[in-house]
Each structure stands twice: as C-alpha cells, then as structure tokens.
Amino acid sequence: MPVVLPVEVVPESAVLREAQPRLLLITPPNSYRTAAYLAAARRHAIDVLVASQGRYSLVSELAGGLQVDLGSPAALQQLLDANDRQAFAGVVATDDAVVELGSRVAEALDLPHNPPEAAQCSRRKDLSRQVLAGAGVPVPGFRLVRLDRPVRPQIASIDYPCVVKPLALSGSRGVIRADDADALLAAADRVRRILAVEYARESALSMQVLVEDFVPGEEVALEGMLHEGRLAVLAIFDKPDPLNGPYFEETYYITPSRHPAGIRERVIRRIQQACTALGLREGPVHAEVRISDGDGVILEVASRTIGGDCARLLQFGTGQGLEDMVISHAVGKPLPVRPQAGGAGVLMIPIPRAGVLRRVEGITAARAVPCVDDVMISLRDGYELVPLPEGASYLGFMFARAPSAAEAEAALREAHARLNIVVAPLMALRDERGS
C-alpha cells in the first residue's frame, strides 16, 4: 500500500452543522474537471461561483457564473470585486492554465494558497527544472532550445537519446524521443507546428522547447494534498507499460504501487523536496517520477489534480472523491481518509491510429470481464481521431477493482483485448483541379 501521511480528520456531523461556505472555482470553459468539482460541491453543500469564459456553455453554472477573460490583467480585480459582494471561503483553480490566477486571488484575500511564483513554476517545465536543479532535486539534464532560431547549432552538444517537450502542454502532448540529431530536428519541427496552433505567435511558450536527457526506468505517479507545505499522500500509481518513446502515451494506472516500500518512500521524499523547493504549500499535487538507479527523478510536480476521469481511482485510495477532497480542503473542512483494501486501476484507452471513428465493438464483452467496473467511450462515432504527439484526448476509460493490484491490471488488459476499434481513413476533399 502507498505510504500515507496523516490527514486531519473532521467529524462529518460537525461539518454539517456549520454554515454553508462559498467557493470560487476558476476554470477554463473547456475543462473536463469542472463538472466533477460542481458535483462534489453539491454533495458537500458548498456554494460555488464559477469564474470562466463560458457565456454560451451548456453547463448552467458556467453560463450563469462570472464571465471573466482569464488571460486579461483585469481578471484579478474582477474576482476580488466578486469577493466584495459575497466573501469566498476558498479558491480552487481547476487546470494548469489558471493556477497562477487562482493563487493571486487567494493571496489577495489571505486564503490558503500557493505563492504565485510557485504556481507559475509548477506549470512551466523550464522554470520547474531550473528551480529543482538549483535545489539539488534530481531532474533530467535539460536545456532550452529556441524555435525561432536555427536549431542545429543549439543541439551540437546534446547527448542521446533525448526528449523534446513543450514548456506547458500536458498529457504527453508534443513529447517526442529523439535518438540522433536528425530525429531531434524533425521532432523540434513537429512540436513547432503543434505550438503554432496552441499559442499566440509571439508567445514565449510557442518559441521554445525543453530538450532533456531520456531517463530510463519505470514511471509512477503520485496524487497528494499539501497543507502548510506538508505533503499527505493520497495514492501512488504504477504505470506498468514501458514509457520509452518515441511518444509517451499513458495507458495503465494501477494502485496500490507494487514497488518496494523503500522505493515508495524515496519517491515521496523526492516529491516533498520538490514541493518545498518550488514553494508549493497548499492544495492538490500531481507528480510524475521515473525510478532510476533506486532513486526518484522528478518529471513533473503540478499544483492541480490528475487529469480526466482518472480521478475516480482516488475513491479507492481514500474512500473520498478527489474533487470532494480538494474543495473541502480549500474551504477549511478537510475530509477523513478511509483507504480501501485490494487493488484498482484505470486504462486510458489509447487511440490506435489517425482517422475517423466509426464504432467501438466489444464494449459489452469488455464490461463482462470479472473485476471490470466500467467502460466509458468518450468520443462519438464520426469524431476525427488524432494520436499523440499531436492529439489531446483519449478514446475513453476503463476501470477495475480487484483483490490485488495485479488482478486489477490483468482484468483491464483482458477487457481492452475484447474491444475492436473501427477507424476509417480521413478523406481529404479536393476541388476539380485536384488541389
């Protein structure tokens, strides 16, 4: 089982007796985390004001919430004005893109928060690497490469294999391994095209990439909660599929970790060191670590929760929904942690190839595999499938609970084998001249 540090326990009866707190939820309009946070707030009688750019959203809380240009310098004052009308008990920022704004709001209101500089570092891989390396925390060797200048002279002394990474994209998007200079040049050009779509042309995020040493070894993820700088571990997930490239699509997350206790403890210590070095003090932490030569090498420490529907696994690890824990912590009402026995896992169903999704066959057969809880297909028929490194979504998710972690993994693998994903070629339209 993961090593779990103490979390404050508050009797549920006492929580119910107190007045209904108000939470500011800052979220991009397309965030898939928003609905889960709103459902958690309803379960715990927490009043929520959603700050977003979702005026035309089908989600009533976004459409009827506070309409804010989240990238505008005026956004901070708008949110502080909303507090003047009715005070907030806590602030939660759902995604990387808004964690810095959330920290600035909470700082101004004297609510528990991460320093804005720490929040910024946690979402920028280049800044994070610089801070952690300076503090002696193990990270891959790295350098910044400018894409608006000739790349070849900048990579003359690169060691191979290496990995090209955008500075701020998540979900392994744009992450490519290169084994020689020609492959690195091709990868940099490919990432340049991804960034040109994602960011404004003159943005620093579109003009630079991180090139870092490839670190061999198994990878784990940790989900935790910080309070006054101290890390409470909610779960450690093994990633049993090798993540060696050329792309780094994540598939299986299995808990509890089957690594020896000494390795798990080393991973936890390294993540705590990273949080301290970055200055992170409050709220959720999602970390990615490579286990290399018996030590933990930090790949990422983000001041947000795990992405997608994977958060459902925390129900197994803590007896509570992850979003329930985050919002309750934010308003000063931490929930009790009740770890469950056995094992659990999720498969982020990978996109097999580019094209148009026609149908997914075998869903009923996959659901019939013993220990499989659910099979969710997120994309509809007719959707264009874009694999990594350009893609930004999974086909769906599978969940399993079993007497052990190994059995949960085996159930997911068997269920995945029962799916048949039918993909048609993407046909390009041509005019009469054949252009």
Describe the structure.
- The chain has 435 residues and is of the alpha+beta class.
- Among the domains are: 12-114, Rossmann fold; 141-213, ATP-grasp fold, A domain (Dna Ligase, domain 1); 341-435, D-amino Acid Aminotransferase, Chain A, domain 1, CATH 3.30.470.
- It contains 14 helices and 19 strands.
- The strands form 5 sheets. The chain has a 4-stranded parallel sheet with strand order 3-2-1-4, with helices on both faces. Strands 5-8-6-7 form a 4-stranded antiparallel sheet, sandwiched between helices.
- Strand 2, helix 3 (60-63) and strand 3 (66-67) form a beta-alpha-beta unit.
- Helix 6 (116-123) packs across helix 7 (125-134).
- The radius of gyration is 22 Å and the shape is globular.
- The relative contact order is 0.13.
- Residues 1-17 have low confidence and may be disordered.
- Give me the secondary-structure category: alpha+beta
Mean residue pLDDT: 91
Rg for CA atoms: 22 Å
| Total strands | 19
Give the percentage of residues in beta strands: 25-35%
Question: Features of this protein?
Answer:
single chain, 435 residues, alpha+beta, Rossmann fold, Dna Ligase, domain 1, D-amino Acid Aminotransferase, Chain A, domain 1, 4-stranded antiparallel sheet, 14 helices, 19 strands, disordered N terminus
